[in-house]
């Protein structure tokens, strides 16, 4: 099939989406085909997988609509220089500090790594879409079983001089995965969080972690015992 591709489309370079099938034998075979086959990666773990089989950085594109700062830093440190951008807000991530993730099997801490604001006719923020670094394929898998999200609260503010009283707005909460199941909630009233803020979801119930997966290369949260 690859030889047919080369004959029919000699100027078109294929990029294999790791998230479609991350089986190591498939990745190894494609890597061994040489510079004619490139890879579409969307997370640090997917970068590591293709690097494991000797793929050079110039054969990789970082493609994800909502990129975490830590993943951007990893790509830059490993000379992955080609990536896509879906919004102006995403470009601002290069000027942000790296967020951290903390969590446990009972209380889950997530970081806001991207957001998109929608304005009304008067120019005021009417709705905010927050993208966090955990999702329905991870710790929020309970949503698949029609279990609603617990009320959440802000654990920490990135800016030390931010006011205690903040505006609350209509929000939607999104997970970082690249598929149609990334909506965690479409109607929530939350503060105007900034990129880097930490949100805590208490009492995440049993099976939160044991049913979680690393789909799309996003790792499960670190467990901290208190």
Cα shape: globular
- By CATH, the architecture of the largest domain is named Beta Barrel
Sheet-strand content, in percent, reads 15-25%
Please report the first level of CATH classification, the CATH class of the largest domain: Mainly Beta
The major sheet is characterized as: 6 strands, mixed
* Helix content bin: 10-25%
From the alpha-carbon coordinates, what is the Rg to the nearest angstrom?
19 Å
Structural class: alpha/beta
Tell me the count of domains: 2
The low-pLDDT segments are 95-105, 159-164
The whole-number mean of residue pLDDT values reads 80
The number of distinct helices, counting runs of at least 4 residues, comes to 5
CATH topology of the largest domain: Lyase, Ornithine Decarboxylase, Chain A, domain 1
**Span between termini:** 54 Å
The CATH superfamily of the largest domain appears as Lyase, Ornithine Decarboxylase, Chain A, domain 1
What is the oligomer described by this structure?
A: single chain
**Spatial arrangement of strands, main beta sheet:** 6-9-4-5-7-8
Number of strands: 9
Name the helix and strand elements from N-terminus to C-terminus, one letter apiece. Answer: HEHEHEHHEEEEEE
């Amino acid at each position: 099939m690859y030889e047919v591709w080369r004959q029919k489309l000699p100027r078109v370079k294929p990029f294999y989406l790791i998230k479609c099938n991350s089986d190591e034998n498939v990745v190894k075979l494609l890597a061994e085909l040489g510079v004619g086959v490139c890879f579409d990666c969307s997370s640090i773990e997917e970068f590591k997988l293709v690097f494991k089989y000797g793929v050079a950085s110039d054969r990789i594109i970082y493609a994800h609509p909502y990129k975490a700062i830590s993943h951007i830093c990893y790509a830059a440190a490993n000379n992955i220089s080609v990536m896509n951008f879906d919004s102006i807000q995403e470009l601002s991530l290069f000027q942000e500090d790296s967020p951290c993730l903390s969590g446990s099997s009972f209380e889950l801490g997530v970081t806001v790594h991207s957001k998109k604001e929608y304005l009304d006719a008067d120019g005021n923020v009417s709705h905010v879409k927050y993208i966090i670094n955990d999702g329905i394929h991870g710790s929020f898998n309970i949503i698949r079983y029609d279990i609603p999200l617990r009320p959440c609260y802000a654990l920490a503010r990135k800016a030390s001089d931010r006011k205690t009283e903040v505006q609350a707005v209509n929000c939607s909460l999104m997970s970082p995965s690249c598929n149609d199941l990334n909506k965690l909630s479409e109607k929530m009233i939350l503060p105007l969080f900034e990129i880097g803020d930490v949100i805590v979801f208490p009492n995440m119930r049993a099976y939160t972690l044991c049913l979680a997966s690393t789909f799309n290369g996003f790792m499960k949260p670190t467990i901290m015992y208190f």
